[in-house]
Design goal:
Blueprint: E1 3-7, E2 10-12, E3 18-25, E4 34-39, E5 45-51, E6 58-60, E7 68-73, E8 78-83, E9 92-98, E10 107-108, E11 112-116
Parallel strand pairs: 2-11
Antiparallel strand pairs: 1-3, 3-8, 4-5, 4-9, 5-6, 7-8, 9-10, 9-11
Length: about 120
Amino acid sequence: EVQLVESGGGLVQPGGSLKLSCAASGFTFSTAWLKWRRQIPGKALEWVSTINDAGDTTHYADFVEGRFTISRDNAKNMLYLHLNNLRIEDTAIYYCAKAATGRTAEQLGQGTQVTVSS
């Protein structure tokens, strides 16, 4: 059974930073493409970033504008998202996700709340 457990969310002031972590189990982590998504209150779930299995290719949504960094540690089965220069509009629940494959749908964790407020 795929398990994805996010942590690291919290309350931060505008311009601040957070590091989100995602502990994964139940699948072959080193061969999985992974993502971060977020859901802003009242809006649909949106894609934030993707990292390939080796960790050497990353993609980001336009709104990231160089402020976030996705990374992974295949030895520890961990996915990370460094959030820098946070804005009030980044307030959301952040989810890590195992990307869909030809045989399985995308699978998300339970999420971690990030609140940016002065």
